[in-house]
Amino acid sequence: MDLETVNVLVFAYLGDTIYEDYIRKYLIKKGIPYVDDLQKEAVKYVSASSQASFLKDLIDKEFFTEEELSVIRRARNYKSKSHPKSCDIVTYKHATALEAVIGYLELKDDKVRINEIMEQILGDKLC
């Protein structure tokens, strides 16, 4: 599969599930015993504004490779017709870009790099 020809929203579609899976496992491993509490805590990580903030922090730290930044730029610049009512279009595009780079890395089968990203976001070593 030539990843250069894959629509970045396809990367984001995949990346969204991987990102949320990491967050859910992380919170469960923290010992949060109730689903309602897990959901409240997860929102701190999976909301578009949180994801956009994480992306900005990682970009500011110069964490991403040029290849990853290329995917991020493609996702941020993708002409989208809609966005959720819960956030503005810029925030949504940045959140989508974070999901896209994770999806891209998943299709590259680079789980080590996904772990590095998630460790940066979670501020913790992953089990």
Offer a concise description of the structure.
The protein has 127 residues and is an all-alpha fold. The chain has helices spanning 8-29, 35-46, 48-60, 66-77, 89-107, 111-122.
Q: Strands, helices and their partners?
A:
Elements: H1 8-29, H2 35-46, H3 48-60, H4 66-77, H5 89-107, H6 111-122
Helix pairs in contact: 1-2, 1-5, 2-3, 3-5, 4-5
Please give a structural write-up:
The protein is mostly helical. It has a single domain (3-122), classed as Ribonuclease III domain (Ribonuclease iii, N-terminal Endonuclease Domain, Chain A), CATH 1.10.1520. The chain has helices at residues 8-29, 35-46, 48-60, 66-77, 89-107, 111-122. Helix 3 (48-60) crosses helix 5 (89-107). The relative contact order is 0.21.
Kindly identify the CATH topology.
Answer: Ribonuclease iii, N-terminal Endonuclease Domain, Chain A
CATH C-level class is: Mainly Alpha
Number of strands: 0
Write the CATH architecture name: Orthogonal Bundle
Integer average pLDDT: 93
Rough shape? globular
Helix run count = 6
CATH-defined superfamily: Ribonuclease III domain
Number of domains: 1
